[in-house]
Amino acid sequence: MIVPVLGAIERIPNSLLEASGDLGARNRRTMRGVILPLALPGIVAGSIFTFSLTLGDFITPLLVGGASSEFIGNVVYSNIGTANNLPFAATLALVPIAIMVVYLSGARALGAFRRCGRRESPHQSGASPVGGRRAAVPADDRDRACNLLHRDRLSTT
Q1: Is 132 within the bounds of a domain?
Q2: CA distance linking residue 121 with residue 64, whole number of Å
Q3: 110 Cβ contact partners less than 8 Å away, ≥ 6 residues apart
Q4: Which residues contact 138 (CB under 8 A, 6 or more apart)?
Q5: CB–CB of 91/82 below 8 Å?
Q6: What is the number of domains present in the chain?
Q7: Which residues make Cβ contacts (< 8 Å) with residue 114, sequence separation at least 6?
Q8: Does residue 121 lie in a domain region?
Q9: In 3D, which of 119, 157, 147 has the Cα closest to residue 34?
Q10: Which domain holds residue 36?
C-alpha cells in the first residue's frame, strides 16, 4: 500500500503545493484540493494490491489465528476439502469478487483511473449537445489539479 501511494505523492510537483499556499489555501484545503486528487490513483492501486493479495490467503490466517479462525479463504477451503460442499464454497468465493467489482466501480466513478490531460467526451459524461454545441463538462477538484499540473509542466520545459 505504501509504495504506490508514495510514488503518487512524489510525482506531485512542489510548485503546486507552493502555489496553493500562495493563493491562501491552508494545509487541509491543499490536501483536499491538490494532493488527494492527484494521489487518488496511487491510493486505489495500493488498496487493490492489498485487497487482492488477501483474497487467496488461507494459510496465513490459519497460522496466525489458529484452527478456529473464520476468514473467507478458510471457509471456502474447508467447504471444498472436508465438507465437500462445492456449491456453498463457489457461492462464498463470489463474495470477494463482488466486493472488488463494487470497489472498482466506485473508484472509476471517482475518476481514479483517468489520466491528467485526458478528457472524456461530453456524451460519456452525461452532458448533451445544446444548440448544436457541446455542453461544457463541469470541472471538479481533480480536473483543476490536473490543469495546474499540466500548466506547471509546460512552464518548466
Answers
A1: no
A2: 50
A3: 40
A4: none
A5: no
A6: 1
A7: 120, 142
A8: no
A9: 147
A10: 2-116+140-156
Q: Which amino acid is at 36?
A: L
Contact 33, 146 (CB under 8 A): no
Residue 16, C-beta contacts closer than 8 angstroms, at least 6 positions apart: 34, 38, 145, 148, 149, 152
Inside any domain, residue 122: no
pTM score, whole prediction: 0.60
Is residue 39 within 8 Å of residue 110, measured between CB atoms? no
Each residue's pLDDT, cut to its tens digit, for the chain (157 residues) gives 899 999 999 999 999 999 999 999 999 999 999 999 889 889 988 988 888 777 767 677 777 877 777 888 778 888 887 788 899 989 988 988 898 899 888 888 877 777 765 554 444 444 444 444 444 444 565 566 666 665 655 565 5
- Is 105 part of any domain? yes
